[in-house]
Structure formats: C-alpha cells, structure tokens
C-alpha cells in the first residue's frame, strides 16, 4: 500500500490503475478510522480492483467553535487499518493541498435536504462536504464511492449532488456499525468520558424502541418522535439538538400516516460531544 500526500501523486496512482483497466473504489474519510470505516474499505476491496482511501480533516465543513482543532488525527494507525482491509493507496493531503488558495468555487446542494437536521445548526457544513467530495471524485475518478448510513443526511445530500451533476459514480451506502452495547461507531466517541459513554447508550436504545413501535403498527410520526424524545430526556446527561422524522429520499416532510421509507434521526450532546444516530423506518 502507498501513502501519498499530493494531488500530483494521487493522479499518478489513479492514471496507472486506469491504464491497467482497473476499477476504482473510493472511501472518503476524515481519519481516526474505526470498524465502521473498516467495513467501507473492506466492501470497496471486494467490489473494485483498486481502492483509494482519503484521510483528510476537511476544514471547510467545520463551523466556528466546532471541533476542527480537537478532531482526532491518527494517520499511522489509519494506514495500518486501511492496509489490513485491502486499500491500495491512502491519500492524506494537507489543507493547503486541497485548498491551495482562497477558493472561489463551491459545490452546494440547495433545498430542504441541506437545511433540515444538521443543516439547521451547521449552515456551512454540507457545502464543505459536497465541495471536498467533488474534489476527491475528480482526483480519484472512482467507479464506486463508499459512505456510511450513520451520516444519513450526508448520504442524501451526496446522492442529490451525484444525480444533479451527472457523476458517473455509484454510491455504495453501508450499514451503521455498532459497538457490542449498541453505540454507533464514531471517531467522536473518543471524546466521551466513562459516564458520558454510558449515557450515550440511550440513543441506540431509544431508536430500537422506535423501530419496534413502528413494526407494531404505529404510523404517527409525532407519537414516535415524542416517545424517543421522552426516552432520551430520561438520561440526565443528554442535551437534545433534534429528534425528527423525514421521508426518504431527500428528507421530504413526512406523510401522515407515515408511508414508504422514513428516516428517524437524532442529534444529542453528552458533555461537549455531539453524537448523531438514526434508523430507517419502512415497510418490510
């Protein structure tokens, strides 16, 4: 496996793979890789001949007073994990490499899909995501790109971008990977102290109960979100940002009664750490 840091080096690797007629899988990450990322890299390795993993803490998707400086950076460990899962290249650029000047070009998906949920409190976040992913798509020229369902809103935003800009790239969305006790794997879990870590289990517990409620026949989104909110509030360390249901795809307003496929998404702070989780509610 090769570790490269520059646009020129990555282009060289991609050109060599293309010249051999290899299919390319891209796994964009911000590093601090865990088993969730491992599942993406493994899937990319199974479905493509050549796998590029990007490790880049993208500054343009962090707002002021967010955790850009604190975000964990563990490149050596990331490279070991990526290699063990079958990556061919790890691309770990410096911010100046990806944003060499004061960029004048942004890729922005407009509409409700970027305004609800995380978009409400993180207004520049998705513009940063779509811009950096577009750059990575241009550089890696993948046949397939791999993302986790944990970032469900990001997935919907990227699907829209790929559709609107005619990217000839298949988006592969992999299921949420959880700890044995149910907590969704996240690089930000490392911020939690022991008490917060225990408190955070209320998220997966509440979502599981909501899924059971839905499967038992409940189709009133207001009742489901109220039950989840009440359940999370029972945990004194929790500070709720949102508990909401939207229709899929593209996070449209939910029907009454609920029909088709719907996303129940939560964002909750424990101490200073904001965690997100979700479950899809749909007819079997």
TrEMBL record:
Pathway: Cofactor biosynthesis; (R)-pantothenate biosynthesis; (R)-pantothenate from (R)-pantoate and beta-alanine: step 1/1
Protein name: Pantothenate synthetase
Note: The reaction proceeds by a bi uni uni bi ping pong mechanism.
Catalytic center residues: 37 (proton donor)
Entry keyword set: ATP-binding, Cytoplasm, Ligase, Nucleotide-binding, Pantothenate biosynthesis
Enzyme class label: ligase
GO cellular component, one term: cytosol
CDD domains referenced in this protein's UniProt entry, alphabetically: PanC (cd00560)
Gene encoding the protein: panC
Source taxon at top rank: Bacteria
Species annotation: Phascolarctobacterium succinatutens
């Amino acid at each position: 496996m090769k570790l490269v840091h520059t646009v020129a080096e990555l282009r060289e690797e991609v050109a060599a793979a293309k010249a051999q007629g290899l299919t390319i899988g891209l796994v964009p990450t911000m590093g601090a890789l865990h088993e969730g990322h491992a599942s993406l890299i493994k899937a990319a390795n199974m479905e493509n001949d050549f796998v590029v993993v990007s490790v880049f803490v993208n500054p343009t998707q962090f707002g002021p007073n967010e955790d850009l400086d604190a975000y964990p950076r563990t490149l050596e460990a990331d490279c070991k994990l990526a290699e063990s899962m079958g990556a061919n290249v790890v691309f770990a650029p410096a911010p100046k490499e990806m944003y060499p000047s004061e960029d004048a070009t942004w890729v922005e998906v407009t509409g409700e899909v970027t305004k609800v949920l995380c978009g409400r409190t993180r207004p520049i976040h998705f513009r940063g995501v779509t811009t950096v992913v577009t750059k990575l798509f241009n550089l890696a020229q993948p046949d397939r790109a791999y993302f986790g369902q944990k970032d469900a809103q990001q997935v919907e935003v990227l699907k829209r971008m790929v559709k609107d800009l005619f990217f000839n790239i298949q988006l592969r969305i992999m299921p949420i990977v959880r700890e044995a006790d149910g907590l969704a794997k996240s690089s930000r879990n490392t911020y939690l102290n022991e008490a917060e870590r225990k408190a955070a289990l209320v998220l997966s517990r509440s979502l599981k109960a909501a899924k059971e409620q839905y499967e038992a026949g409940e189709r009133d989104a207001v009742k489901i979100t109220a039950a989840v909110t009440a359940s999370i509030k029972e945990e004194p360390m929790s500070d709720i940002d949102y508990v909401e249901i939207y229709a899929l795809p593209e996070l449209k307003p939910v029907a009454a009664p609920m029909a088709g496929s719907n996303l129940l998404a939560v964002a909750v702070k424990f101490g200073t750490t904001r965690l997100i989780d979700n479950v899809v509610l749909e007819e079997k």
